[in-house]
Amino acid sequence: MISVAEARAHLLSMVQRLDAEEVPLREAASRLLAGPVEARQTQPPFAASAMDGYAVSGPPPAPGTAFEIVGEAAAGHPYEGSVAPGQAVRIFTGAPLPKGADRVVIQEDMTREGDRATVTQDPGPSTHIRPAGGDFAAGTEFASDSPLGARGIALLAAMGHARLPVIRRPVIAILMTGDELRPPGAALDPGEITASNGYGLAAMVEAHGAEARLLPIARDTEESLAQAIDLAQGVDLLLTVGGASVGDHDLVAGALAKAGMDPVFHRVAMRPGKPLMAGRLGEMAVVGLPGNPVSAMVCARIFILPMLHRMLGLPQEGPPVERPLANDVPANGPRQHYMRAERLPDGSVRVADRQDSSLLSVLARADTLVIRPPHAPAAVTGALVPTVNLSDETRQS
Ligand SMILES: Nc1nc2c(c(=O)[nH]1)N[C@H]1C(S)=C(S)[C@@H](COP(=O)(O)OP(=O)(O)OC[C@H]3O[C@@H](n4cnc5c(N)ncnc54)[C@H](O)[C@@H]3O)O[C@H]1N2
Ligand code: MOO
């Protein structure tokens, strides 16, 4: 059995950053830019009025100064002439500043009668002008190593990008296996249970930028598994779920070997997740997750998300955060234990009483995994323990 760290290193070495593809701006949200892009234009493209008022030339006019109104400038409707001393152009927010104008006096500080406008109070020093390029100049670089969010999309739109180069979405096939499994909602015959973890895995990888393909549930026969593995050909990563252990009906490793998979490892000193296996099938990485729902979800959090981050070119997450325990935990056995826990308002973590790897209700309540290294001695309330955040699973930028 290899350690968690060894398994993670193997798994990361099985994938690499994917190629770029170009997508319309409207499809770029939550995608990763493949590299820096440059502003295609200057913003604002021209000096513009920031207020509704009168464009005039010269220093701030004193109260009582009168101007002759020679024209009008509105957003999208420039005034083509120029403004001479003593003249004013009626101007609205967003309009290009006319030639010769040095400032905008806001309309609250002026009064108008026909073609004359007179300053009624000190307009102060502000010019109320947005200079050309005040936001950014053509050629300004935009780079981001996190998924594009609303603010980035708005800026890239302003920079004039109708299409953007983004990292291709990894395609992940998810294959649940087992004669006992029925889809959610289907009636259960004796001995049958509802398949659950594949749906959770799909939600998790989709929240992190992958395209998930949930394959039809395979039966515990070589033919059914071979057929399902065949359906997955061409994806970046195949996740099988179940049938990974040592029982007579655990046929997945055999079926993958028969399909030509080069095994990389089988079994990891972790809990849950001992039967985890991995290999390469042509260009495709394959990870065999244990069938127990919590085992599959925990292994995906610990191993599949880092693989996904590598494929997307995202930085790997930092080291585990240490938090104080809110209750005592016993000494650990030989496998690294990822214990389901809840963060309390004071920042401490309460480890759940029941840690069986079939208990989805406990996992759903948890927001943290407390990491207990192999052979860790008992730890008491208040002791600092390394933790993994589970709420990241549903992050969506
Ligand atoms: N003699 C041994 N038995 C077991 C060992 C062992 O080392 N020696 N390991 C145990 C551990 S740890 C785990 S984890 C399980 C995992 O085994 P498999 O990957 O072969 O999983 P299955 O046997 O197919 O299923 C386990 C359990 O989970 C249920 N299941 C399976 N798929 C799903 C699904 N998609 N949705 C919901 N539930 C699912 C399945 O019905 C079983 O109850 O092996 C131990 N045994
Ligand atoms: O490793 Mo199993 O996943 O403990 O339940």
Give an overview of the whole structure.
With 397 residues, this protein is α+β, with helices and mostly antiparallel strands. It folds into 4 domains: 159 residues, 3-Layer(aba) Sandwich (Molybdenum Cofactor Biosythetic Enzyme, Chain A); 58 residues, Molybdopterin biosynthesis moea protein, domain 2 (Alpha-Beta Complex); 83 residues, Molybdopterin biosynthesis moeA protein, domain 3 (Beta Complex), CATH 2.170.190.11; 74 residues, MoeA, C-terminal, domain IV (Beta-clip), CATH 2.40.340.10. The chain contains 7 helices and 26 strands. A 6-stranded mixed sheet has the order 7-4-6-5-9-8, with no helix packed on it. Strands 16-13-17-21-20-18 form a 6-stranded mixed sheet, with helices on both faces. Strands 19, 22, 23, 24, 25 and 26 form a 6-stranded mixed sheet that branches. The chain binds ligand LQZAQKY5 and molybdate ion. The site of ligand LQZAQKY5 has 26 residues, from helix 3 and helix 6. InterPro entries: MoaB/Mog-like_dom_sf, MoaB/Mog_dom, MoeA-like, MoeA_C_domain_IV, MoeA_C_domain_IV_sf, MoeA_linker/N, MoeA_linker/N_sf. Belongs to the MoeA family. Its cofactor is Mg(2+). Keywords: Magnesium, Metal-binding, Molybdenum, Molybdenum cofactor biosynthesis, Transferase.
